[in-house]
Amino acid sequence: MSTIKIMPCLDMKEGRVVKGIHFVDLKEAGDPVENAAFYEKEGGDELAMLDIAATVENRKTRLEWVKNVSSVIHIPLTVGGGISTLKDIELVLKAGADKISMNSAAVRNPDLVRQASKKFGREKVTVAIDARRNKQMPSGFELVVSGGTKPVGKDAIAWAKQCQELGAGVILPTSMDGDGTQTGYDLEFTRAISDAVVLPVVASGGAGKLEHFYEGAVKGGAQILLAASVFHYRILSIREVKEYLRKKGVQVNL
Length: 254
Prior knowledge:
The chain is an alpha/beta fold. Helices cover about 35% and strands about 25% of the residues.
């Protein structure tokens, strides 16, 4: 197993960090700049910042948020939300992001993934895949877009494979069934994605206890473990998570 990375996630709305359950019931969770600096100091390997209202509000990512957060950290920053053109990607990278994450726009226009990979490099392109259970899909998981509000009628695992072929560098799957619940990553969904692609996979949605992180890496096959609520509300620290993983035989950077 490769070295496992811990990735706190800042879900952004109206300039503040927020966190909900199943993508709704959002609660305030602090200042993004303060949180970003704190997480780097705590040992976060990467940081995600997702402008969760951008697509629903039909606007672009707020570049000032990217500039403010990137100015206080040195770890890689992945930014997503409202990114739908090559120009958007260019502006977000110039504002200080190391990688971009696209979701709804990639589903609408899969060629955007190919173009972005070709222009900026595969390592800059993360495709976020939100899904929910649907027995009518071959894999049992249906792709949803627009912040989890619109089912697409497309198989989520087949889409992950397509994204790899198009040139994505990282896949970030989130199960709507688990988001914000702190009941554990959706291991079945995460494993289905990690078995389908050779790219790094980010486990996302539902981490609440130390063992959830271990399960995400070992049972889910993820290389990067993303969490929000447990870190924002100081239920767990990044150091605690890393020390626990190391004791369980998982390789981490302390």
